[in-house]
Write a structure and sequence with these properties.
Helices cover 49% and strands 24% of the residues. The protein folds into three domains: 126 residues, PAS domain (Beta-Lactamase); 44 residues, no CATH class; 203 residues, Nucleotide cyclase, GGDEF domain (Alpha-Beta Plaits), CATH 3.30.70. With 484 residues, the protein is of the alpha+beta class.
């Protein structure tokens, strides 16, 4: 029985590994993107500063001579040649930082252009620093030659440098706005590369995670199947898992547990089998319907059954002439000889009373009980032949059979319980066996037995006494002899 629920080991390992790999890939991509973005920005700023310094140095002569026309032409050429340039501004310190040249030309004659925040302009015009590079954003769309170089809100870099005379006197400021699109494209490329590497890593990780999960879950599932088979009663089953890790150790312990269970169950079966020798299983079905482990004192059930009593005639005098060991051996041989016909006829022995046998038949008819009595007498003849060959005297038995209502149940107390059958019918069957001596008959049955025969024509029955009073019974009964 396989389990593929959400909480299975394989699913948990796959889920945990996937989350781990996704987290690692996401972290790597984020760090990589941040690193690449910062690196590109630093490179862009460094290159822009160098470019602005060179341009400021080239503009120094033109600015000192107030050659603004030439400066404007040069700025337009720079804008055409560099698509990443968004704007170029040249302001004159001598005229309170008025912008006298710009490209696009929209910002000429302004002091504080509306292209970037004021703090960016103040940083560029600050006399305390020679150059600066600030990342900011455009306050409006920036057009050059009818094409939009940057949209409002777009992130940009403004690089500024002082324009100085040979003497070192500051006469102006050069400011260039540069687009971050190239940097963003480089970052996107870096992110795509990271995602590609991450995807490959994710795929490889999932393959290895699946292999690991399968390696861990398959033995566990086989253990689950083995546990189910053992729970179903197959105690000979063993889990075939040959691993040297913790799962292998678990499988070894599992098999050791299975061996212990098999041993315990075998002992229990032998115990139950032995117990059935003392209490027949048909009796157990009545006195222990919920199992022998739940047997209690006082459990009883009323049944209509056929009771057979068998006793050896003259047993007391025979026992006086034998040693206890000889008596014990003789009884075992005799009881075994008489027990077989009873068992073959469908009856079961309730108890042994010395040399007497009390047997019960729970058939609706009495044919099996009468047939058992006939077989017992025939078996006794063969038993006597064997005794006579050994020089031992023959024995005779009397059998009494009655059918009636009895109570089957348990008697005793907590530490000693016994099963028994009681009732007037039991007493009558016992008395009837005693009458076999008086009437010199081998088998006597009551009228209730005769009336319950399915096939009375199969037996030779003769009326012995139509009205005999049995000890303990007020009413007279009719008794019959079964002739062999």
């Amino acid at each position: 029985m396989k389990v593929f629920a959400f909480h299975s080991i394989r699913t948990q390992i796959m889920t945990a590994t996937t989350l781990l790999i996704v987290t690692l890939v996401g972290s790597i991509v984020w760090v990589w993107a941040e690193t690449e973005s910062n690196l590109y920005r630093q490179q862009q700023k460094s290159q822009a500063k160098s470019l602005v310094k060179l341009s400021a140095y080239a503009l120094a002569n033109e600015l000192s001579e107030d050659n603004w026309s030439q400066i404007r032409v040069d700025l337009d050429l720079l804008m055409k040649e560099n698509q990443d340039f968004l704007y170029i501004l040249v302001s004159d310190v001598r005229k309170k930082n008025q912008i006298l040249a710009s490209s696009p030309s929209d910002f000429q004659n302004q002091y504080i252009p509306d292209i970037v925040p004021v703090k960016v302009t103040n940083a560029a015009l600050d006399l305390s620093q020679k150059s600066s590079a600030v990342e900011t954003f455009a306050l409006r769309d920036i057009k050059f030659l009818e094409s939009i170089r940057a949209k409002r809100g777009e992130r940009i870099i403004e690089v500024s440098s002082d324009v100085q005379m040979v003497s070192g006197e500051k006469i102006g400021t050069l400011r260039i706005g540069m687009s971050l699109r190239q940097i963003n494209r480089a970052v996107v490329y870096a992110v795509n590369q990271a995602l590609l590497v991450g995807t490959v890593g994710l795929f490889v990780g999932l393959v290895y995670a699946y292999i690991l999960a399968k390696r861990l879950s398959d033995p566990v599932q086989r253990l689950q199947v083995s546990a189910a088979r053992i729970a179903a009663g197959d105690l000979h089953h063993r889990a075939e898992i040959n691993l040297s890790d913790e799962i292998g150790a678990l499988a070894k312990s599992f098999n050791e547990m299975s061996v212990a269970l098999q041993t315990s169950f075998s002992k229990l079966q032998k115990t139950l089998k032995s117990f059935e020798h003392f209490v027949p299983d048909k009796f157990l079905a009545v006195i222990a319907p919920e199992g022998i482990e739940n047997i209690q004192v006082g459990v009883s059930a009323t049944r209509t059954m056929t009771i057979l009593f068998c006793d050896i005639r003259g047993y007391s005098s025979m026992a006086e002439q034998m040693t206890p060991q000889q008596t014990f051996s003789f009884l075992n041989d005799f009881l075994e000889c008489m027990g077989l016909p009873i068992e073959e006829s469908g009856g079961f022995i309730d108890k042994y009373i010395g040399d007497a046998i009390m047997a019960l038949f729970d058939d609706e008819g009495t044919d099996s009980a009468v047939r058992a009595a006939i077989l017992m007498q025939q078996t006794l003849s063969r038993f006597n032949e064997a005794r006579m060959q050994k020089g031992l005297p023959a024995i005779a038995i009397g059998i009494g059979i009655h059918r009636g209502e009895v109570v089957m149940g348990t008697v005793g107390f907590t530490s000693r319980i016994d099963s028994t059958v009681v009732g007037d019918s039991v007493n009558l069957a016992s008395r009837l066996e005693g009458l076999t001596k008086q009437y010199n008959c081998n088998i006597l049955v009551t009228e209730s037995v005769v009336n319950s025969l399915y096939h009375p024509e199969s037996f030779y029955l003769g009326l012995v006494d139509k009205s005999v009073k049995v000890k303990g019974k007020d009413e007279a009964i009719a008794i019959y002899e079964v002739k062999i």
